[in-house]
Design brief:
Layout: H1 18-27, H2 64-76, E1 83-90, E2 96-102, E3 129-133, H3 142-159, H4 163-171, E4 173-177, H5 182-187, H6 234-245, E5 248-255, E6 260-263, H7 283-294, E7 319-321, H8 322-325, H9 332-339, E8 343-348, H10 360-376, E9 382-388, E10 399-402, E11 405-410, E12 416-419, E13 424-431, E14 438-445, E15 451-452, E16 455-457, H11 503-516, E17 521-528, E18 534-540, E19 553-558, H12 566-581, H13 586-594, E20 596-600, H14 605-610, H15 647-658, E21 661-668, E22 671-676, H16 694-705, H17 709-713, E23 730-732, H18 733-736, H19 743-750, E24 754-761, H20 771-787, E25 793-796, E26 810-813, E27 816-821, E28 827-830, E29 839-842, E30 847-848, E31 854-855, E32 858-860, E33 873-878, H21 886-901, H22 906-913, E34 916-920, H23 925-930, H24 961-969, E35 978-983, E36 986-991, H25 1003-1015, E37 1039-1041, H26 1042-1046, H27 1052-1059, E38 1064-1070, H28 1080-1097, E39 1102-1108, E40 1118-1121, E41 1125-1128, E42 1134-1137, E43 1142-1149, E44 1156-1162, E45 1168-1174, E46 1187-1192, H29 1208-1214, H30 1229-1239
Family: Belongs to the peptidase M14 family.
Protein name: Carboxypeptidase D
Catalytic activity: Releases C-terminal Arg and Lys from polypeptides
């Protein structure tokens, strides 16, 4: 396995004194992190020199020109017709990617030269292909030389008649690719073993010339992001194309940096840094192959390579599972196994990446026998041909499946196959569309040469239904690049595979089409069902894996109810139809070229396996394996769904949030009708529940039903439901019957996607013989419905200053209360019926209010919009009640104060540099517009434009746009350490909870935060607000639990604590809701110190860093404090939690590790620093302890950052005047004086002496007790 920057760090805490471990922590906090010793980059470039070595000489490395010459010499060492030198492509800098093919009977080379798809020569029937790829990382060079020596040995040995090598090349097609990264090799430096930092990124030669690690650039089954951009890695693109043109059976990927044989999988779904054994379905075969290599290598077989820096590293039998060693996402060996027929292992040949040339002879001797033995292993298992029983011709791309092993291969161009297997007895099936599958049972595989098994498949007789229906068009139906009136004589190819596909059959079907049509398909999985079946999706597009700006995305989902199977089979038919007709049928070609199509045949594969053919009305198999109805499992706008959210539901919701779907249909069975939102209503009764886009939904529903004549008639199931009638074959969901928790409503309300539910027939699980009829009835409907994704309006929202697309800009249509948002490149699609519309695009801010006013969010930081997880983050929110805008003005004053003093006052500059401050001045701008200045008690404007008190809407079913904006964009991110909400109507601070509860978790901390604000206020801490309407009110310390002050449900601070894992206090800053502008300076003066004390306090509590024993940070670990407070570690392993002074218990939990326990003492005047080290072997420093916690009573050491001038003041000034509620800078000369005093280095404190070390020099600070 290749070494990488993201692999294990260089030093292991278990091998260092405690003090050194603490010091290294400070050094490793940089996001770049140190690389593993054997995986670090090197510097400088070396050049070749000296005369060309004679055959067999090991005196130097072959550089650019010499490599091609050396390979030609190797080819010439054998007899004519044994070798063929060609290039599969070129590197970034234009160097050829040479491959030497070695096998008997090749014939003369082609006249077109050594490049192009035909340069390698024709494939040979029945001869298995083996490839060996070296120098993928340019600075790992032993493989580059060893493979040249191997080529020379094979060719020369064949010429001299060596029986073993003659037999090998007579029966095996061997391909040697010495250097996949020739550009990197030219930058690398002889003698650089990869033990040091080595200079700037890319200097070592590890990556290609565009700085890309080739072994992190392949498509990955467990990918956490977008597919890799192959334009940056032409070397990888060339290799993938080469793999697709061939049927490689076995492969070795040769690296350096250790001495071990590594096998798939290289990563896991969890992407833990190390320690996760990620097993393939062929785990035993892979271990056998790895041992075959390791056991013949004198160092590797010991399992103790003793590499410098890793002297204690051991590998049992000299082999390791890739992910168990360390996680590599985007690796080549996994790509070979998952996406091709090829079994590949990764071979680390030497501790030193680029050893001196004097060691090359020894390296060759170490690896010679291992390499030849590995090539010989291509002949184990089962081999044979799959042929047409009638014609005798070989059948390409037939699927070979082995019972009990969840990994299939496909046949080659001549129908030949080689399936690697260990000795045992197997049942093997060959299958191909259009043929009856054939299973051969009890095949005995012995040690040694493969067992021979041939399959002769009988063609099936299928009546193909011709397409006699014209394309029906209307003014509302999109015609994609087909001239009106054109009648094509072309008849599209119809599907032939009409049978019920159980999960293994469906998987074979999907993989076969993904393999046969790689240019327009991508098979991927959303996750797994309860019973661990993959939730497959087939993407069909002319650019699979990529969102093309401006191109809409469409999806069909089938088999949500496991016993409703017609949708599952129709989507498989549709995959076959689109694939086979792309490029020949104009309608299909234009649809695929203009639309990114995602087809999910089965959302409930577990339920399907329980269902029974012929079922019309039962519920057997309807639910998932936990017995929950998936179409009652989505969050609902009217009903609280209490059932636990199922894995299938979670996977699909995540999918819908990740892709910019525009249109969708959910395929069901049990009736014959298109059902559109809403599916339920507030009363829970059968009544028409109209969405804002009711006209659009009727139009797209009709586009489907009118192409299905039986559906369009509207009386679908006369025998079962004689009184049921659906005009034109469509119905409003709730008007038919009430469905709370349905998927189609969730699509419409929570994403940009318009979804309908299509009932495909009265019989849920029809007999197989009826499936062709269902295709004929629905094929035109399926195509016409997809075309609707192009209706309405589409376009881009761009930044006028730089032309870049704006993500999440809002597209609003006047008089239709349903906005949509833009995708990453600013592209949007808005389905509409024909008509004239007024459309508004808006951006910036967190979101919009009910009346479409912006909810502004201001971030103050030295690096706005840059993630710095080690910095504490604080949130200030005001104006939740529009009639109390006093908090709004105080927050604008705070923002102005921080911005004007940045780079003037050292204390505030340091505060801004070390803190991420987010200010939301007005959460309810609509209410604010209705409220009146100087109105101290009126409730006018308290609610939003829909009459909702926003502080009662913070629930999982939040209904208001204002609360949704805060929840989705701030609270649910769970990355804030503290939140302060400002309101009016009294002078006090409340802490959670506002809802009536018996006990309050973390009460002491919450009360401490509230008391801190009150104690820094000149009058609040006295507890006597003295408000005119409540003159006798007494609040001890000015602090009270929210429920004791004003008990209510759905408050922002309760939601913040429960779901955002962030403590929040509410500050009532003035008896008057809307004081006059003349009172603002005095209110600012009263609250300034308290507000700044919150910025200071957010740096206290416990700052932590979680890593494993290797030093790899652990993100998403759960930190539980005092058995109640729960936070998660951020990117980079950081966490931060505010706690009251005193002793607190810590429990640390991470997948793959045992739960850890410790205590920490929190100081009142400084942060405590905690380092948590998980130890997988339960021993650190040789002691039986599971956790190392280093606690410091000092403040966190400062990160040295380059501060940028903050732009925020410009935004503040632009809207500072509103309805006479003026900005306070017009009124406070003393404020200006204070700023001037600070900027000249005065010792006048921002806070009182209890927050400041008065012994400080000119570098005065807000932090106290800085030890």
């Amino acid at each position: 396995m290749a070494s990488g920057w993201d692999a294990r760090p260089p030093w292991r805490p278990g091998r260092l004194p405690l003090l050194l471990c603490m010091l290294l922590l400070l050094r490793l906090r940089s996001p770049a992190r140190a690389a593993h010793i054997k995986k670090a980059e090197a510097t400088t470039t070396t050049t070749s020199s000296g005369a060309e070595a004679d055959e067999g000489r090991f005196d130097r490395y072959y550089h650019e020109e010499e490599l091609g010459s050396a390979l030609r010499e190797a080819a010439a060492a054998g007899p004519p017709g044994l070798a063929r030198l060609f290039s599969i492509g070129r590197s970034v800098e234009g160097r050829p990617l040479w491959v030497l093919r070695l096998t008997a009977g090749l014939g003369p080379p082609p006249p077109d030269g050594d490049e192009g798809p035909d340069a390698a020569g024709p494939l040979l029937p029945g001869r298995p292909q083996v490839k060996l790829v070296g120098n993928m990382h340019g600075d790992e060079t032993v493989s580059r030389q060893v493979l040249v020596y191997l080529a020379r040995e094979l060719a020369a040995g064949y010429r001299r008649g060596d029986p073993r090598l003659v037999r090998l090349l007579n029966t095996t097609d061997v391909y040697v690719l010495p250097s996949l990264n020739p550009d990197g090799f030219e930058r690398a430096r002889e003698g650089d073993c990869g033990l040091g930092d080595g200079g700037p990124p890319g200097a070592s030669g590890r990556d290609n010339s565009r700085g890309r690690d080739l072994n992190r650039s392949f498509p990955d089954q467990f990918s956490t992001g977008e597919p890799p951009a192959l334009d940056d890695v032409p070397e990888v693109r060339a290799l993938i194309d080469w793999i697709r043109r061939n049927k490689f059976v076995l492969s070795g990927n040769l690296h350096g940096g250790s001495v071990v044989a590594s096998y798939p999988f290289d990563d896991s779904p969890e992407h833990e840094a190390t320690g996760v054994y990620s097993k393939t379905s062929d785990d035993e075969v892979f271990k056998y192959l790895a041992k075959a290599y390791a056991s013949n290598h004198p160092i590797m077989k010991t399992g103790t390579p003793h590499c410098p820096g890793d002297e204690d590293e051991t590998f049992k039998d000299g082999i390791t599972n890739g992910a168990h060693w360390y996680d590599v996402e985007g690796g080549m060996q996994d790509y070979n196994y998952v996406w091709a027929n090829c079994f590949e292992i990764t071979l680390e040949l030497s501790c030193c990446k680029y050893p001196p040339a004097s060691q090359l002879r020894q390296e060759w001797e170490n690896n010679r026998e291992s390499l030849i033995t590995l090539i010989e292993k291509v002949h184990i298992g089962v081999k044979g041909f799959v042929k047409d029983l009638v014609t005798g011709s070989g059948l390409e791309n037939a699927t070979i499946s082995v019972a009990g092993i969840n990994h299939n291969i496909t046949t080659g161009r001549f129908g030949d196959f080689h399936r690697l297997l260990l000795p045992g007895t197997y049942n093997i099936t060959a299958a191909l569309t259009g043929y009856m599958p054939l299973t051969v049972n009890n095949i005995i595989v012995k040690e040694g040469p493969a067992a021979k098994v041939n399959f002769s498949l009988r063609p099936t007789v299928t009546s193909v239904i011709s397409d006699t229906t014209d394309v029906v068009t209307a003014s509302t139906v999109a015609i994609l690049n087909i001239p009106p009136g054109t009648q094509s004589s072309h008849q599209p190819i119809q599907p032939k595979d009409f049978h019920h596909h159980h999960f293994p059959d469906m998987e074979i079907f999907l993989r076969r089409f993904a393999n046969e049509y790689p240019n327009i398909t991508r098979l991927y999985s959303l996750g797994k069902s309860v019973e661990s079946r993959e939730l497959y999706v087939m993407e069909i597009s002319d650019n699979p894996g990529v969102h093309e700006p401006g191109e809409p995305e469409f999806k069909y989902i089938g088999n949500m109810h496991g016993n409703e199977v017609v949708g599952r089979e129709l989507l498989l038919n549709l995959i076959e139809y689109l694939c086979k007709n792309f490029g020949t049928d104009p309608e299909v070609t234009d649809l695929v070229q203009s639309t990114r199509i995602h087809l999910m045949p089965s959302m409930n594969p577990d339920g399907y396996e329980k269902a029974q053919e012929g079922d019309s009305v039962s519920v057997i198999g309807r639910n998932n394996s936990n017995n929950f109805d998936l179409n009652r499992n989505f969050p609902d706008q009217f009903v609280q769904i209490t059932d636990p959210t199922q894995p299938e539901t979670i996977a699909v919701m995540s999918w819908m949030k990740a892709y910019p779907f525009v249109l969708s249909a959910n395929l069901h069975g049990g009736s014959l009708v298109v059902n559109y939102p809403f599916d339920d209503d507030e009363q829970g009764v059968a009544t028409y529940s109209k969405s804002p886009d009711d006209a659009v939904f009727q139009q797209i529903a009709l586009s489907y039903s009118k192409e299905n004549s039986q559906m369009f008639q509207g009386r679908p199931c006369k025998n079962m439901y004689p009184n049921e009638y659906f005009p034109h074959g469509i119905t409003n969901g709730a008007s038919w019957y009430n469905v709370p928790g349905g998927m189609q409503d969730w699509n419409y309300l929570q994403t940009n996607c318009f979804e309908v539910t299509i009932e495909l027939g009265c019989v849920k699980y029809p007999f197989e013989k009826d499936l062709p009829k269902f295709w004929e009835q629905n094929r035109r409907s399926l195509i016409q419905f997809m075309k609707q994704v192009h209706q309405g309006v589409k376009g881009f929202v761009l930044d006028a200053t730089d032309g870049r697309g704006i993500l999440n800009a809002t597209i609003s249509v006047a008089e239709i209360n349903h906005p949509v948002t833009t995708y990453k490149t600013g592209d949007y699609w808005r389905l509409l019926v024909p008509g004239t519309y007024k459309i508004t695009a808006s951006a910036r801010g967190l979101g919009q209010s009910a009346e479409y006013r912006h909810i502004w969010s201001l971030e103050i930081s030295n690096k706005p919009n840059v993630s710095e997880p080690e910095e504490p983050k604080i949130r200030f929110v005001a104006g939740i009640h529009g009639n109390a805008p006093v908090g709004t003005e105080l927050l604008l004053a705070l923002a102005e104060f921080l911005c004007l003093n940045y780079k003037r006052n050292p204390a505030l500059t340091q505060l801004v540099d070390r803190t991420r401050i987010v200010i939301v001045p007005s959460l309810n701008p609509d209410g604010r517009e209705r409220a009146q200045e100087k109105d101290c008690t009126s409730k006018i404007g308290r609610t939003n434009a829909r009459g909702k008190d926003l502080d009662t809407d913070f629930t999982n079913n939040a209904s208001q746009p204002e609360t949704k904006a805060i929840i989705e964009n701030l609270i649910q991110r769970q990355d804030f350490s503290l939140s302060v909400a400002l309101d009016g109507g009294s002078v006090l601070v409340t802490y959670p909870y506002d809802k009536p509860v018996q006990t309050v978790e973390n009460k002491e901390t919450l009360k401490h935060l509230a008391s801190l604000y009150a104690s820094n206020h000149p009058s609040m801490h006295l507890g006597q607000p003295g408000c005119p309407n409540k003159s006798d009110e007494n609040i001890p310390g000015g602090v009270m639990r929210g429920a004791e002050w004003h008990s209510h449900l759905g408050s922002m601070k309760d939601y913040s604590v429960t779901y955002g894992h962030c403590p929040e206090i509410t500050v009532y800053t003035s008896c008057c809701y809307f004081p006059s502008a003349t009172q603002l300076p005095s209110l600012w003066a009263e609250n300034r110190k308290s507000l700044l004390s919150m910025l200071v306090e957010v740096h206290k509590g416990v700052h932590g860093f979680v890593k494993d024993k290797t030093g790899k940070p652990i993100s998403k670990a759960v930190i539980v404090l005092n058995e109640g407070i729960k936070v998660h570690t951020k990117e980079g392993g950081y966490f931060h939690v505010l706690l009251a002074p005193g002793v607190h218990n810590i429990n640390a939990i991470a997948d793959g590790y045992q739960q850890q326990h410790s205590q920490v003492f929190v100081h009142h005047d400084a942060a405590s620093s905690v380092v948590i080290v998980f130890d997988t072997d339960n021993r650190i420093f040789g002691l039986p302890r599971e956790l190392v916690v280093t606690v410091s009573g000092a403040t966190m050491s400062a990160l040295i950052l380059t501060a940028g001038i903050i732009w925020c003041i410009c935004s503040i000034k632009s809207n500072r005047h509103k309805d006479g509620f003026h900005r306070l800078r017009q009124h406070h000369d003393e404020y200006e004086d204070e700023i001037r005093m600070m900027s000249t280095g005065s010792k006048k404190s921002l806070l009182s002496h209890e927050f400041q070390d008065e012994t400080d020099t000119e570098e005065e600070t807000l932090y106290s007790s800085k030890h």
